[in-house]
Amino acid sequence: MNMKVNIAGVTLKNPVMTASGTFGSGREYGEFIDLNKLGAVVTKGVAAVPWEGNNTPRIAETYGGMLNAVGLQNPGIDVFVQRDLPFLTQYDTKIVVNVCGRTVEDYLCVVKRLAGQPVDFLEINISCPNVEAGGLAFGQEPKMVESITREIKKVAKQPVIMKLSPNVTDITEIAKAAEAGGADAISLINTLTGMKIDVKRRAFALANRTGGLSGPAVHPIAVRMVYQASRAVQLPVIGMGGIATAEDAIEMMLAGASAVAVGTANFNNPLVTMEIVEGIRSYLEEEGISDVKELVGAVGA
């Protein structure tokens, strides 16, 4: 049985990876699971310089998920290269670095710094607010998506995955813009903007007021957007959003994803990625399917 998938010319041993911001550099989870068994580890967002993140409280539980307004806190590219990358390269898994920034130059700085590093993919988080465009997220306007994708592709030495925001009117227009800019793959969805109010305190649950909603509550929306995006472009799609079981992952692949990323579920079950890998394998055996790629986009048009 073949569990391997190919994303932009890179072969993963299976289609299961982690979602950025939920797995750190894998160091903590390495105590619970064998990182060698993952298709890929996706790092927390890495910026050109250290980011402090937002004020606390910045996490709140919700029905079927959680809100976060962490603000992409990270120690910056220099610490990542010196500390985290050597740890990850010990393992037989692909490495995907999530890149964040507040200006185009921020992104380009990190991409250039990673050019000679042992990294397999760059995942570009375009849900970041563009300070040069009045705070509008890079990923909310097609022309901006196409432009930043093109600029990154000019200097990138690894395949570029553009991570799409669901906070848009038409996800297919954003996917097409990423393709037009030269993206090698797309990943979706990032978190949905949400809010929670503490009725006892009559105050916002998050210091930031709004946060990104993730977890099972967003899964049906993610499946729908993956389905739409995968049919709008010729690029490989990495599906994410509320994946907590093998069934969730298989559903995402049937919708058109070539691989899947597991995020929020890691917080309440550190073993979840291993369970999903084994669950997909068991499903293939039960259904008499010899190649996991047969699942990709298998539902009707």
Give the structure's gist in a few sentences.
It is built from 8 helices and 16 strands.
Question: Could you describe the 3D structure shown?
Answer:
This protein is an alpha/beta fold and 301 residues long. It has a single domain (5-56, 71-196, 212-295), classed as Aldolase class I (TIM Barrel). Helices cover 30% and strands 20% of the residues. The chain contains eight helices and 16 strands. The protein has helices at 77-88, 104-113, 142-155, 171-180, 219-232, 246-255, 265-268, 272-287, and strands spanning 5-7, 10-12, 16-18, 40-42, 59-62, 65-68, 94-99, 121-125, 160-163, 185-188, 192-195, 197-198, 203-204, 210-214, 237-240, 259-262. An eight-stranded parallel β-sheet has the order 3-16-15-10-9-8-7-4. Strands 5-6-14-11 form a four-stranded antiparallel β-sheet, with no helix packed on it. The chain has a two-stranded antiparallel sheet with strand order 1-2. Helix 2 (104-113) links the parallel strand 7 and strand 8. Helix 3 (142-155) packs parallel to helix 4, helix 4 (171-180) crosses helix 5 (219-232) and helix 6 (246-255) packs across helix 8 (272-287). 50% of the residues are buried. The mean pLDDT is 95.
Keywords, separated by commas or semicolons:
TIM Barrel; 30% helix; 301 residues; 8 helices; alpha/beta; single chain
